[in-house]
Design a protein that fits this description.
Helix content: over 70%
Keywords: Membrane, Transmembrane, Transmembrane helix
InterPro entries: EcsB_ABC
Transmembrane segments: 21-43, 55-75, 103-123, 135-157, 169-197, 203-220, 285-306, 312-329, 350-370, 376-395
Protein name: ABC transporter permease
Largest sheet: none
Number of helices: 16
Strand content: under 5%
Number of domains: 2
Organism: Loigolactobacillus binensis
Shape: flat
Length: 403
């Protein structure tokens, strides 16, 4: 079973490496670096205004630590077919699950280390905590996450919804108490408490698993849910075959379709807008990137950096919409329409232009509160210029090359 786990892990890493080329593209990484720089700049300015110790600092850190604790789930890499083909190997499955549990701890550990490192300047200014205390908090968080993964493994053997919810509530209640003791008393006291809990779990879980039966459907459903979240994140940047598009009626958006009625020249305008509004793939991608870009722009204090970031997000959204141009190619009836091919290109061009203009308006509305009127005006000019260049020059050229 350990060999099966290693094989599944290699396949998973190969798949993620394939998608990483699209997720971590140069434009997105530029936007990320700009965002991190702007966030660090704002963070530094905020720290200059604080004079500690502050009464609300430790409660805020406690909330942050609890949010961090919720990051990361047990990754089993189980597949639907396993419920049939691995069923005879159920007794040997525990070795596979334990390897998956150990692997699932690495990513949360890295996130904990990065976030606690980012909190160090705030701790030094607003609290009496020392860097050594941060190491203790890291150890407590890591041990709590380890216990949470044990409970998730246990839930796959005792898949009773009421018990799972009760255990989850008890875990977060216990974690809150232990983290509070670590912050207000001493991290070493928190380490002692969490060590007692770990010993108790290590004693209790083998006794439960000795007579429990693995709940295949529950475990596979949880893994599919975890992978679905990951695929949705990847789908922000590229098409994911594992995500099947769905059609939704969305009656409340029907008035928008009236703008594309009224003539033969608007045939493809109507088709593209109707497919965009009623599908789930492209409208979801557009809205997610729109919200992500707006959130990032909110934290950027320098107008020209915000304008550059906004232009990058306009490019990202427009570039992700380019495959939408080919969506009707396999529909034979569409090729019989008495509509010139240039009308199809212009219709798609108008759709993308309208969506990018709406995105630029949202971005302009976000930064209007953080900049002067002249800076806001310059930002709007840059975004409008980016929309014009992308929709009138760059994207039409790319579409002609893909014919």
């Amino acid at each position: 079973m350990k060999q099966l786990w290693q094989q599944r892990l290699r396949q998973h890493h190969k798949e993620m490496l394939k998608y990483s080329r699209y997720v971590f593209n140069e434009f997105f990484m530029i936007a990320v670096f700009i965002f991190i720089g702007a966030l660090a700049y704002s963070y530094s300015n905020l720290l200059d205004t604080l004079q500690g110790p502050l009464w609300w600092a430790k409660p805020l850190i406690l909330v942050v630590l609890l949010v961090l604790l919720s990051f990361g789930r047990w990754a089993t890499l189980l597949q639907d077919a396993d419920t049939l083909f691995l069923l005879p190997k159920e007794r040997a499955l525990l070795a596979y699950l334990l390897a998956a549990r150990r692997y699932s701890l690495w990513l949360p550990a890295a996130v904990f280390a990065l976030c606690l490192g980012a909190l160090l300047p705030f701790q030094a200014v607003a609290t009496t905590l020392t860097p050594a205390n941060s190491l203790g908090l890291f150890a407590v968080l890591l041990a709590l996450k380890d216990g949470q993964l044990w409970l998730q493994l246990l839930a796959s053997y005792t898949a009773i919804p009421q018990q799972v919810n009760i255990r989850r509530g008890l875990f977060y209640g216990t974690a809150t108490v232990i983290l509070a003791v670590s912050l207000w008393v001493s991290p070493w006291a928190g380490i002692v408490l969490v060590a007692v809990g770990e010993v108790g779990l290590r004693w209790l879980i083998p006794r439960i698993l000795a007579t429990a039966v693995f709940q295949w459907q529950f475990a596979v459903k949880n893994e599919n849910s975890r992978m679905l979240q990951l695929y949705r994140l990847i789908n922000l940047f590229t098409d994911v075959p594992q995500l099947s598009g769905k059609v939704h009626r969305r009656v409340y958006l029907d008035p928008l379709l009236r703008w594309t009625k009224g003539g033969q020249a608007k045939t493809f305008s109507y088709l593209y807008l109707r497919e965009f509004l009623r599908g789930s793939e492209y409208i979801g991608l557009y809205l997610r990137l729109l919200v992500l870009g707006a959130v990032i722009l909110w934290f950027i204090p320098v107008w020209w950096v915000a304008a550059l970031t906004g232009a990058i997000f306009l490019y990202l959204v427009g570039f992700q919409l380019l495959p939408f141009y080919q969506i009707f190619n396999e529909n034979l009836l569409v090729h019989l329409y008495p509509v010139a091919p240039i009308q199809k290109l212009r219709s798609f061009q108008h759709l993308v232009q309208g969506l990018l203009l709406l995105q630029a308006v949202v971005f302009a509305a976000v930064i209007v509160f953080n900049h002067t009127l002249s800076q806001w005006g310059l930002f709007v000019i840059v975004e409008l210029a980016a929309v014009f260049l992308l929709t009138q020059v760059y994207f039409p050229q790319r579409l002609r090359q893909t014919k």
